[in-house]
């Protein structure tokens, strides 16, 4: 009897091991781990760009730059972070791990060279070299975003607003507040060490999650949106915790060890979504086991579907792959030489269908959206890039600058998740068009710019909240509008083309307006004091006049962008009254 009992436990033990192994495979290859991996990759990728306001003063002082030169570096930072057309084209023909790997290498190289220059370990580079380094380093963000975000949107097409809200919420929004906690916990106030930190961290995280991020053909589950809401609740808890500790740190002042304690709580909440991943994949594993699928996942990869078709189905579908349909268009094109490929560029399909890249780029809708983004995002980005200099010119202490960055980051996050989820709810339930929400956000940004311009007493904190919220809210709306109007077939490229508007707006408003007017006022102040600037000397402006005229101009430009968006609202109002997600349910 004992021998029989022992013999009976062997299959049971083997079965348990097999079951645990299949569960582990389910978790590691499941789509929810892919979402969590995308969150971490995008969070880390934005660390260097979101912290520019904190280490920009180190660049300025160690390299002897004036504000125009510093803003030029800021422009190339924004140019690299947002010009991802190359990464989009690469991602059209390669799996996501290719662009993620390339982005990791670019981030490490670019910011490592900046750290070597600022720390004095190499000779002072020319300005063009520093611009090249920061452009390469920040361009890694575009590669990481293309690999992670575009993959998630394609895997969850019916919940793209929620996907964009969550991913863009973590990227650049919560990033600033979380990295600030890490910075003070690890390095105190050493801004030079921060540059080295943002050089290796994104590269390490991208490489760690390469296998998890991939394209999957999946069927929607009923609780899919509910899971995204759970991700949202955790991120809201993280944002609330960050807000509380920022207020406490501002009031009492933290030592480096105390920052370490607060960082432990931040990291716990940052990795808490892993529990959702395990829970959802465990339920899916149980369901598969009960249905007797024997390891077949409900994640029906396209190639697997082709392999499981029987011979009769292949024979039935053979006419679809036969040469005549392929050659037929060639005959027609020979008879219609007058209708060249260029004529199709100006004959786009209906909104919501898959545009070609050129059809989208030459459409009036894309022009209006692009122009509105230049005005709206360009203005808010100018304020963010000049955060350190704005605070210094108005007499705020150094610790207040960290508070400004953290507050702006949290409200940036709130803007992204609110715009993503609220626009999705309003669109599906009330047919409220996303372009209209974008116009209202840009109108609110005008108020933030005016508060900056007139330096309303004790209103700078409110101004940063408004600008952070509006900057964040525009991104998920922009990318969702592009996917809805122009389709998902070439979304990798069109998504990145939409981002190009940001550095254009940054150059025009940040370098040519804000930087120029700041230096002009600083030189006037030096002349009034009877001194002259020496070569290589830092140029500093003090007082509310440093940025007043610049933000008045930016407010006017943003208002123009708002009017442009309203034109897009009128053009697309009929499209947004239809069921734009119907084709994904057929």
What is the number of helical segments per DSSP (H or I, 4+ residues)? 27
* Distance N to C terminus: 59 Å
The number of distinct β-strands equals 0
Report the radius of gyration as a whole number of Å: 26 Å
Shape: globular
Largest sheet: none
Give structural notes.
- The protein is an all-alpha fold and 586 residues long.
- Helices cover 80% and strands 0% of the residues.
- The protein contains 27 helices and no strands.
- The chain has helices spanning 2-29, 31-45, 47-50, 52-63, 67-82, 85-93, 96-118, 127-155, 160-187, 191-208, 224-252, 256-271, 273-290, 302-307, 311-321, 323-335, 341-345, 357-361, 364-385, 387-393, 398-430, 434-454, 460-486, 491-499, 501-528, 545-576, 582-585.
- Helix 9 (160-187) runs antiparallel to helix 21 (398-430), helix 9 (160-187) packs across helix 23 (460-486) and helix 19 (364-385) packs antiparallel against helix 23 (460-486).
SSE map:
Blueprint: H1 2-29, H2 31-45, H3 47-50, H4 52-63, H5 67-82, H6 85-93, H7 96-118, H8 127-155, H9 160-187, H10 191-208, H11 224-252, H12 256-271, H13 273-290, H14 302-307, H15 311-321, H16 323-335, H17 341-345, H18 357-361, H19 364-385, H20 387-393, H21 398-430, H22 434-454, H23 460-486, H24 491-499, H25 501-528, H26 545-576, H27 582-585
Helix pairs in contact: 1-13, 2-8, 2-9, 2-10, 5-8, 5-25, 6-24, 7-8, 7-10, 8-9, 9-11, 9-12, 9-21, 9-23, 11-12, 11-21, 19-23, 19-25, 19-26, 20-21, 21-23, 22-23, 22-26, 23-24, 25-26
């Amino acid at each position: 009897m004992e021998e029989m009992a022992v013999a009976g436990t062997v299959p049971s033990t083997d079965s348990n091991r097999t079951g645990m192994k299949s569960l582990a495979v389910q978790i590691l290859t499941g789509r929810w781990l892919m979402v969590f991996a995308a969150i971490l990759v995008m969070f880390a990728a934005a660390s260097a760009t979101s912290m520019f306001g904190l280490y920009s003063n180190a660049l300025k002082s160690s390299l002897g730059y004036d504000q125009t030169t510093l803003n030029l570096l800021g422009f190339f930072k924004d140019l690299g972070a947002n010009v991802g057309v190359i990464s989009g084209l690469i991602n059209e023909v390669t799996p996501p791990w290719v662009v993620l790997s390339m982005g990791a290498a670019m981030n490490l190289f670019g910011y490592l060279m900046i750290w070597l220059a600022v720390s004095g370990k190499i000779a002072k580079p020319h300005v063009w070299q520093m611009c090249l380094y920061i452009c390469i380093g920040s361009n890694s963000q575009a590669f990481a975003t293309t690999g992670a975000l575009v993959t998630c949107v394609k895997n969850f097409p019916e919940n793209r607003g929620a996907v964009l809200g969550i991913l863009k919420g973590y990227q650049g929004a919560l990033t600033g507040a979380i990295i600030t906690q890490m910075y003070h916990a690890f390095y105190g106030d050493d801004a030079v060490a921060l540059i080295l930190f943002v050089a290796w961290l994104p590269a390490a995280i991208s490489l760690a999650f390469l296998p998890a991020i991939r394209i999957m053909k999946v069927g929607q589950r009923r609780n899919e949106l509910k899971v995204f809401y759970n991700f949202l609740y955790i991120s809201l808890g993280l944002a609330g915790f960050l807000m509380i500790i920022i207020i406490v740190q501002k009031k009492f002042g933290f030592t480096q060890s105390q920052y370490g304690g607060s960082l432990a709580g931040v990291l716990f909440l940052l990795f808490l979504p892993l529990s959702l991943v395990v829970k959802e994949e465990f339920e899916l594993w149980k369901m598969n086991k009960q249905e007797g699928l024997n390891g077949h996942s409900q994640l029906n990869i396209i190639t697997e579907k082709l392999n499981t078709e029987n011979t009769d189905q292949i024979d039935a579908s053979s006419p679809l792959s036969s040469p005549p349909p392929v050659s037929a268009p060639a005959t027609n094109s020979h008879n219609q030489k007058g209708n060249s490929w260029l004529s199709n560029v100006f004959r786009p399909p209906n909104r919501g269908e898959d545009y070609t890249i050129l059809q989208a780029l030459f459409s009036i809708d894309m022009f209006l959206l692009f122009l509105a983004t230049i005005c709206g995002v360009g203005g808010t980005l100018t304020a963010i890039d000049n955060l350190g200099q704005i605070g210094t010119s108005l007499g705020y202490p150094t610790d207040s600058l960290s508070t400004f960055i953290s507050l702006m980051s949290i409200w940036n996050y709130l803007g992204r998740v609110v715009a993503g989820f609220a626009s999705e709810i309003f669109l599906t339930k009330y047919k409220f068009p996303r372009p209209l929400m974008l116009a209202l956000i840009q109108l609110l940004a005008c108020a933030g710019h005016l508060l900056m311009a007139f330096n309303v007493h004790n209103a700078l904190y409110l101004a940063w909240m408004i600008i952070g919220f509006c900057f964040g809210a525009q991104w998920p709306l922009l990318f969702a509008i592009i996917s809805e109007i122009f389709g998902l077939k070439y979304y990798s490229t069109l998504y990145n083309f939409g981002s190009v508007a940001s550095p254009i707006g940054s150059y025009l408003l940040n370098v040519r307006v804000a930087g120029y007017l700041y230096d002009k006022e600083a030189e006037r102040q030096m002349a009034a004091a009877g001194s002259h600037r020496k070569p290589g000397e830092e140029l500093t402006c003090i007082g509310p006049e440093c940025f007043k005229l610049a933000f008045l101009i930016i407010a006017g430009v943003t208002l123009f962008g708002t009017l442009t968006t309203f034109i897009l609202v009128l053009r697309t109002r009929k499209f947004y009254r239809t069921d734009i997600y119907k084709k994904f349910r057929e």
